[in-house]
Design brief:
heterodimer; A: mainly alpha; 12 helices; 73% helix; globular; B: 305 residues; alpha/beta; Rossmann fold; Alpha-Beta Plaits; 5-stranded antiparallel β-sheet; 11 helices; 15 strands; 27% strand; elongated
């Protein structure tokens, strides 16, 4: 198992798209931070309140697409934590993460390399578990890189770097890493089950763009007709939690998000593993 | 007879109602180069995928290295394979492609990858990405990948398909070198029979998912050599006569022909016995044929091709 993980990590760091995606994400982050400064200077920037952001996700039909809302800083200054929060909850990071996930997961299937190794492993399901573990490394590294780029972007464009509440930032980042990782495992399972890069990529991007809320809303309405009031399926989804976890989550909120993330990750990892083991290569 | 390294019993693979491989029993000797012959769609690749662990078995049994059933998972690493086209990461070099598989096997030995590159004659490719390789180079790298982990059984599916004459010679030489230097057992499927006949020591002929015949090179050469060819309207009527005369090595090839591969000097006596039994014989002659013709006759003639 350790050898399979080493193999996948070696392959991951030899994949050009990993670096291309990181570079594009970094450039966009620097660009958006610069825009923040421009808006702020022109007195046009109005930071969203925490309540506003949360409300946008509890309405029956939240807005589709990516919309970055930066919460107001306590002293009017934008902190790294604020921008990280805005980018994470809007699924800006998730978008880049899922694109690479689909490319990485499908690479050995699309190239046919899997035929060189698939028959020589005692349990083919281990290949999927190893991919999932590699994706955890990728998630942590990407999030860490994004924070570093954000620090750099603040220094370069805003002229200052306020980190914000470090403890709160670490808790929030930890929860977001877990939720983002769960999203990647979902995308991995979808790619393995569908065996199609295009379909998997479309689904992955739709998840990040909140396109699934159309389905969630329909289910909510059906549940409402059955007599269950105030039910919002989105609260029990990984993408919903990514958007709804507050900037300073309490213990209960953290636990709930962690359960959702762990539940989806375990179920999707198991499903992908079983399907891949049973299916002919 | 040498030790049997791979044996299948009633091996079957079914997709829906279609049987791609139908109750195939093969026996592959240790150290043999087993030529697996069959037309496109005969079931060669499916059979080889099952042997390589890439496809599940619908029914039947595979016994390899003395292991069968669940025990097979323990010896899977001893089977290297190149199934269909070589699966390579196009944006990586040959070295990197091999390195990935070495990581899987935990191989850290210095010079190991260089040695494999040398074996498959790709030692001079440098940093060239595999997407820029010729088909022959890709096939050889595919064989190289199959060699990682020192397998005892090498499964090669159509390794010379689409290659130019030079490429064919290179792959053939590589296969022969592996057998001679590493005493590997090799299963190689192809429908280019003349090429296969240059290296194979044993043959299995598969047609419509069923194994038609399994024979050694000597047996095949004998069969492709001289034989008595009897032409008559109802071959089955002649079988009791053949049995009574003690002929054992014969074959009814179609609705009009029987081939007898032994006692070629008794054709006149056979003709007389058939006449005595009241069986009209249209023709009786001693003939020989090419490997390709033998294969076509065995699998229903050129009309089905």
């Amino acid at each position: 198992m350790l050898n399979i993980i080493k193999m996948d990590l070696y392959r991951m760091f030899r994949t050009k798209s990993l670096y291309v995606i990181w570079i594009i994400a970094a450039v966009l982050m620097i660009g958006t931070t610069y825009l923040l400064k421009a808006e702020n200077t022109a007195d046009e920037f109005e930071a969203a309140s925490q309540q506003e952001i949360e409300e946008s996700y509890t309405e029956d039909m939240p807005a589709l697409g990516i919309q970055v809302m930066i919460p107001a800083g306590s002293d009017g200054k934008i902190t790294v934590k604020d921008i990280f929060y805005g980018n994470a909850q809007s699924k800006f990071y998730a978008l880049f993460l899922v694109i690479f996930t689909v490319i990485f997961v499908m690479a050995d299937i699309n190239s046919g390399y899997i035929k060189n190794i698939g028959g020589q492993i005692q349990n083919r399901g281990y290949l999927v578990i190893a991919k999932a573990i590699s994706l955890l490394v990728y998630t942590v590294l990407t999030m860490a890189a994004m924070v570093l780029v954000q620090i750099l972007a603040c220094r370069l464009t805003l002229g200052y770097m306020e980190f914000g509440d470090i403890k709160g930032f670490l808790v929030y980042t930890g929860i977001q890493i877990l939720l983002h990782y769960a999203l990647l495992v979902i995308c991995m399972a979808v790619a393995i089950i569908l065996k199609s890069s295009v379909a998997s990529m479309v689904i992955a991007i739709c998840l990040c763009m909140d396109m699934m809320v159309i389905i969630y809303s329909a289910i909510d309405k059906v549940v409402s007709r059955m007599g269950v009031k105030d039910f919002h399926l989105i609260k029990y989804t990984v993408t919903g939690q990514i958007a709804m976890v507050s900037q300073n989550p309490d213990r209960k909120e953290c636990l709930f998000a962690a359960i959702i993330a762990a539940g989806f990750a375990v179920v999707c990892m198991a499903a992908g593993s079983v399907v891949f083991k049973k299916r002919d290569i | 007879m040498s030790e049997i390294l791979l044996r299948t019993k009633g091996l079957t693979k079914q997709y829906g109602h279609q049987k791609a491989v139908d109750h195939v029993d093969v026996h592959i000797r240790k150290g043999a180069i087993y030529g697996f012959i069959g037309r496109n769609g005969a079931g060669k690749t499916t059979f080889l995928k099952m042997v390589s662990g890439l496809a599940g078995v619908t029914s039947g049994e595979i016994e390899m290295f003395g292991c069968k059933g669940r025990e097979l998972s323990k010896i899977r690493s001893r089977v290297g394979c190149l199934i269909e086209s070589p699966g390579l990461y196009g944006n990586m070099t040959a070295y990197e492609n091999l390195k990935i598989k070495c990581k899987l096997f935990g191989i850290k030995e210095k010079g190991y990858i260089e040695e494999i590159l040398k074996t498959v004659r790709l030692e001079d490719v440098g940093r060239k990405k595999t997407k820029n390789y010729s088909l022959g180079m890709k096939q050889r790298l595919g064989i190289g990948l199959a060699l990682v982990g020192e397998p005892d059984l090498l499964v090669l599916d159509e390794p010379i398909n689409g290659l130019d004459p030079q490429g064919i010679v290179e792959v053939r030489d590589t296969i022969q070198k592996l057998r001679d230097e590493r005493n590997m057992t090799i299963i190689i499927s192809s429908h280019i029979l003349e090429e296969l006949s240059k290296i194979a020591t044993d043959y299995g002929i598969i047609h419509k998912g069923m194994l038609m015949q399994e024979l050694t090179r000597e047996e095949l050469m004998n069969r492709c050599g001289e034989r008595i060819e009897v032409t008559l309207d109802q071959p089955e009527q002649a079988l009791p006569v053949l049995d009574a005369m003690g002929f054992a090595d014969y074959q009814v090839t179609d609705k009009e022909h029987i081939y007898i591969f032994e006692r070629l000097n008794e054709s006149a006596q056979l003709n007389m016995e058939l006449a005595k039994a009241g069986i009209p014989v249209k023709g009786i002659s001693i003939t020989s044929e090419e490997l390709e013709t033998y294969f076509l006759n065995l699998t229903g003639g050129a009309k089905d091709a």
